[in-house]
Amino acid sequence: MTDVLKGKIAFQGELGANSHAAAKSACPNFEPMPCQTFEDAFSAVASGQAVRAMIAIENTLAGRVGDVHHLLPEAGLYIVGEYFAPIHHQLIGVKGATLSDIKKVRSHPMALGQCRKIIKELQAEAVKTADTAGAVREISELGDKSVAALGSALAAAFYDLPVLRHDVEDEPHNATRFVILSASPDDADLEDGPCVTSFVFQVRNIPAALYKALGGFATNGVNMTKLESYQIGGSFHATQFYADIEGHPNETNVKLALQELRFFAADLKVLGVYKAHPYRNLQQKP
Fold this sequence. Notes:
Elements: E1 8-12, H1 18-26, E2 31-35, H2 38-46, E3 52-59, E4 63-64, H3 68-75, E5 78-86, E6 90-92, E7 104-107, H4 109-114, H5 116-122, E8 125-128, H6 132-142, E9 147-151, H7 153-158, E10 163-165, E11 175-182, E12 195-203, H8 209-219, E13 224-231, E14 239-246, H9 252-264, E15 265-275, H10 279-282
Parallel strand pairs: 1-2, 1-3, 7-8, 7-9
Antiparallel strand pairs: 3-4, 3-11, 5-11, 6-9, 6-10, 12-14, 12-15, 13-14
Helix pairs in contact: 8-9
Protein name: prephenate dehydratase
Domain ACT: 198-275
Domain Prephenate dehydratase: 8-183
């Protein structure tokens, strides 16, 4: 028997999107709340309409999800968890359609980028849409046998459409990493096991500042799993960095590394300390 619902979890996309499937799997006791944009999903949590947000942040094939890293530092929300979802795209058509009918394939740009081989095989035109589930809805409304969509099995079932070919992603290891956001911090305890700490920072405008700031992670044996830079405020001189590290701020080596970073950083904001998802262990090289 399902537990009592704990509130709503917002996600970008329509019902049936991969984010919806991830939210159902990771947070089954929350009511899914579809949002048109990432900004809407962030706002839903900030305003109290939802208590959590499930936000796609990067994909193993297509890279980072645009705009999310810009939104995270300014949203006033906290990362309280992560979830890695294997992504399997289905080529979905309307009833009566066959593969030979397909001339256009609709989907979100990330999905199109993850399924280049099937699009090339069909010699079809890739058409960008707002999200995968929206693409499935659109072909359902069009009823055109020449137009297919890349979407989830959940979306195909939701709109009662046939899957023309299953699992058409280019690589079998295709997976998307999601972060779970809350309006208030809920940091993992040191005793909870392997943790990830996420933060953003800017470095002082002095020579070798980034090199010196990151040196503390190397000398203290802290593994940095992600470091990305992007411009802020429309200036080429204002660069912000997003980073993920393995470990908890209360661990001595992590504490020392963050202290060194603070010395060289113009600004440092911890976005969350949360349990590492088991998928990380599966990705470890022997």
